[in-house]
Amino acid sequence: MINFPKYNILFFVLAIPLITVSFFISYWWIWIILFFILYTVGLTLSSINIRSNFYMKVICEGNPENNSISITFDDGPNIINTPKVLEILKKNNIKACFFCIGKNVEVNKELLKQIYSDGHIIGNHTYSHSYVFDLFSSGKMKTDIQATNNIIFETINKRPKLFRPPYGVTNPNLAKAIKKINMISIGWSLRSFDTTTKGNIGKVLKRLENVKAGDIVLFHDIIDEIPEILEKFIELVQVKNISFVSIDKMLNVDVYNE
Ligand SMILES: [Zn+2]
Fold this sequence. Notes:
3-stranded parallel β-sheet, binds zinc ion, 258 residues, 10 helices
């Protein structure tokens, strides 16, 4: 699989003859421009594809042979919908992972304690979840992510090791930041697109019908439709005879740094 350093070497090697030829052939510069556009497109596509493993390692699925899936919730905790999600999970004896946003934890500390005491795993999904997070410097990313780790530590006395990149975007700065804080990045293999339902739950469920053993499934516990989606999804998984497993057991990883 090609990664960022190999990609750069490949383009550098190809660029040398391409630029050399431009000294002898007029209008060759058009090819040079196209070449650099192609280079940039490759970088961008790799950046927005959480499963590319291009800039950094992101674990996106477990071993299908175990015939289980793991479910994850991003962007909470949310005072209205997270308790409903917890209720459904408890009823079905399912342990999930909640990738929390620091600024939401700050105003919902009791809820975070409840998620944790219910036996779920708490992961980090940045403090700000800024729209421009991917434009932050590596240092600023590190500060943002650590702020969430600190709030979570103050609340449940555990410092998360699992990190989920906002919007699933990765880049060299994030790779550097995550390495420095010694965290593990977790992606997904099945995305519900539950935040884009606009009331059309059927469309989300249709997508979720593709669930298969080994999947890490992405939901958001901030949307009003999540309780209904989750209940129907659990039925769907049970019909397929697939079991639910918490992400630490699925991946055999430590989920807290201390
Ligand atoms: Zn998010």
